[in-house]
Predict the structure.
Amino acid sequence: MVRSDARENRARILAAAREAFTEDGATSMNQVAQRAGVGAGTLYRNFPTRESLVLAVYQDEVARIVDSAPALLAEKPPLEALRHWTSGLVAVMRRKHGLGDALSPNAYQSINEQSYGPVVAAINAILDVGKQDGSIREDADAGDFLQLSGALWRAAPGPDDRSPRMLALILDGLRARPHQ
């Protein structure tokens, strides 16, 4: 069992690294340790390499977004929940692509493989509720949605960000249509 202070240190390191990497992808391990208020030994005990820290930050972000699906469904109709959930996923994926230089090709592939199943399961959970209430078409598929939404995180962020309009088009395609 991990001591509470060790859990707190790990959480502080992850939070500091998330912030630091968002601001500057080239942030050093020492800068992360300083920002987290821990010594270098504590940092390296938890994350022996920069790549292991980058992977842990990404895994933590994916877990957060995956875990947010039930709460969104409790607050919003399925298509609106999917809109908010997907916007969060886009932000995480954009950060991951920004960290790509810090990851070896094998680590990059590994993280994609590890996150695919939980992400698809979260999408399925939202789609299933929409299928049950009749707001989402019966043939909607989580894998198809994920593949289409891949274009969203590749769209250039900033003032000309096309991703909200693109997401609206994707979600419109998921709407159940009255039988003719």
The mean pLDDT is 89.
